[in-house]
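pinning this so it doesn't scroll away 📌
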Amino acid sequence: QVQLVESGGGLVQAGGSLRLSCAASGRTFSTGAMGWFRQAPGKEREFVATISRSGGSTDYANSVKGRFTISRDNAKRAAYLQMNSLKPEDTAVYYCAARAPYNINTSYYSSNYDSWGQGTQVTVSS
C-alpha cells in the first residue's frame, strides 16, 4: 500500500499559478501510473491529468489542456501538477492518485487507481 500526501494548494487570483506536489511513501517501492483528479463543491470527482510510470506519456482533460502540466520524479517518489492561467472554475479539492506498480499506463478512470491522497484545496478568485 502506498500513502500519498498532496501539498501546494492555496488561494490565488485568476490568471495566477500554483504547483501541486504529491509525495508517495510506504512499503511499495514504486508506483505505477499516477493521476490528478479534482472535485468541486456539489460536483462529482473529475479527471485532470495522468502520467505513465516512466513519465513518457501524459494526458489531460480538455478543460486544462495547455494550462496544466503533470510531471513526476521517480527517484523522489513524487508527482507534480503545474497549474498556470488559473480560472475560477478550477476551484476544487485536488487529489493525487497512484496505480499499482504493474499498471504502468495512463488512465482517465478513477476506479483504475489504487491509492489516493487526502486532497489539497485550490481556490481561484475572480
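📌 and the second one:
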Amino acid sequence: QVQLVQSGGGSAQPGGSLTLSCTASGNIRIIKTMGWYRQAPGKERELVAQIIDFYTTNYAHTVEGRFSISGDSAKKTAYLQMNTLKPEDTAIYYCYVRLLTRNNLDFTSHWGQGTQVTISS
C-alpha cells in the first residue's frame, strides 16, 4: 500500500552533477524520514543522506559538502542534489521512507526500486 518511485539516475562525468528524486504514495499518514542508501559491488550498503521531518538533514562523510538533500512534505517527495561527482559515487541508489505508525510509537520502512548512478570519464 506504500510505493516509492525513484527517478533521476543515470551517468555523469567526474565533477558533474545529477539530481535524484523519490516520491512516496499510497497509505501514508506521517513521513518521519526520507533518504537514500547506496550500494556498490563489493562494498557495504551506505546511508548517503536523509532528511528527518522534512527539516533535519545528515550525510555520509564521503558525500558531505557535495550532496544536498531536500524535501517537499506536501508532495511527499525528497530530492538529492549530487554535485562534484566522483567515480566512487557509482552505485545503485535506493530511496527509503520511514513512516510513523498510527499510534505514533513505531515506524515502518519502505524501499524504492533503486536507480543506477554511474560516474566515469
